[in-house]
Structures are given as C-alpha cells and as structure tokens.
Amino acid sequence: MAKILFLIFFMLLTACDTRLHLGDYYYIYSEGSFGYGYHLICKLGCEGDVHIDYVKRVRWNDKYILVNKTNKECYVIKARGEELACCNRDSIIGPMNNNQLDEYIKTMGIENLNEENFKYNWKEKKLDYIDTLVAEK
C-alpha cells in the first residue's frame, strides 16, 4: 500500500512541473510562477543574470537562447564560454526587433535550435483586470 501511495504522489509531483529547462539553470517558468506570462529566469538568481518576462517564443541550443516577447522585443543570451551557464556573466543582447534578431542569427551562423512557443489568453486576462478594477471601486 505504501508503494502505491508513493507512486501516486510521485506522479502528481512530476505532472505539476511548470518549467521548461533550456540548459544549465536557465528555465522558462509558466504562468502563475512569477505572475502573469511566461518568464525566462536563471534559477540561481545571481546578480546580472537574465529575467525576461512575457516570453512568446524561445529557441535555444548549448550556446544561445533567442527570445521573442509578446511586445515584439527580442533578446539573445549568448554563452560567455562554450556553453550557457548561470552566474557566469553570459551576454544579454537586446532589446532588438525581429529583423535584427534574424540578421544576428544569420551573421553568427546559429543553427540546430530547439524551439517552444507560448500562447496567451489576453481576452481572459483583460476581463480579470476589469473585474479587479470594478471590485476596487
């Protein structure tokens, strides 16, 4: 009986993982973890490490993380060494627009990227915001 309870507990724990691992301690955290929207954060939280909110699209490999935000701003996180590493002063380049990001990718020869896209329900969020304003009055 204890084994069955442990198995159920373990399955529930792993099903609740709300983050996407990009490499080292870089993660995309889902909505609710740090407020509304998806956030790119270094889990270690060292000074100067990245925190980008409202991530719409992320592409990554061992050396680069390319981020498109919902407001059309784009960012590049470039490894200081051979691989991305939190607390290692990786470069944060941006904001830039989509054309500048595409040109950067082409110029640097960045390839073999993983990709993930995130959807937002802005209508629902706007309704929540309006309900909050009405409740405050």
List keywords for this structure.
about 140 residues, alpha+beta, disordered N terminus
Gist of the model:
The protein is α+β, with helices and mostly antiparallel strands and 137 residues long. The chain is globular, with a radius of gyration of 18 Å.
Structural account:
This protein has helices at residues 2-15, 98-108, 122-136, and strands at 19-23, 26-29, 39-42, 51-52, 55-60, 64-69, 74-78, 91-96, 114-117. With 137 residues, it is of the alpha+beta class. A five-stranded antiparallel beta sheet has the order 8-7-6-5-9. A hairpin with a 4-residue loop joins strand 6 and strand 7.
Rounded mean pLDDT score: 81
Major β-sheet strand ordering: 8-7-6-5-9
Helical residue percent band: 25-40%
Class from helix and strand fractions: alpha+beta
The SSE order reads HEEEEEEEEHEH
Rg is 18 Å
- Helix count, per DSSP? 3
Low-confidence stretches: 3-16, 126-137
Tell how many strands the DSSP assignment holds: 9
Write down the overall geometry.
globular
Question: End-to-end distance, in Å?
Answer: 53 Å
Q: What kind of sheet is the major sheet?
A: 5 strands, antiparallel
Strand content: 25-35%
Give me the secondary-structure topology.
Blueprint: H1 2-15, E1 19-23, E2 26-29, E3 39-42, E4 51-52, E5 55-60, E6 64-69, E7 74-78, E8 91-96, H2 98-108, E9 114-117, H3 122-136
Antiparallel strand pairs: 1-2, 2-3, 3-4, 5-6, 5-9, 6-7, 7-8
